[in-house]
Design a protein that fits this description.
By secondary structure, this protein is mostly beta strands. It is about 0% helix and about 35% strand. A 4-stranded antiparallel β-sheet has the order 1-2-3-6, with no helix packed on it. The radius of gyration is 20 Å and the shape is elongated. It starts with a strand and ends in a 13-residue tail after the last strand.
Length: about 80
């Protein structure tokens, strides 16, 4: 189960075992225009190859904050004996 909430530039993912916080690209960035990456190299060629993308300085896609949640108690419907 995964729930996602976005508040301004922050994306919050809630999992059963942890909460992840990740900063999204800056929508007013002059380099990437809010996409989070910059295209380098030639454009789309005759064979359909895409240009190389590198992350913009306003956003790091691999940086996030993990907040672990406590263990849940195990509830069983049957007695253990």
């Amino acid at each position: 189960m995964r729930n996602t909430i976005t508040i301004r530039r922050w994306r919050i993912d809630l999992y059963e075992s942890a909460i992840y916080l990740q900063k999204q690209p800056n929508p007013t960035c002059h380099d990437c225009h809010g996409e989070g990456h910059i295209a380098r190299g030639p454009g789309i060629g005759p064979y359909g190859e895409e240009p190389d993308f590198e992350p913009c300085g306003c956003w790091d896609p691999f940086r996030s904050l993990r907040i672990p949640l406590g263990r849940r108690p195990v509830v069983t419907e049957r007695w253990p004996f």
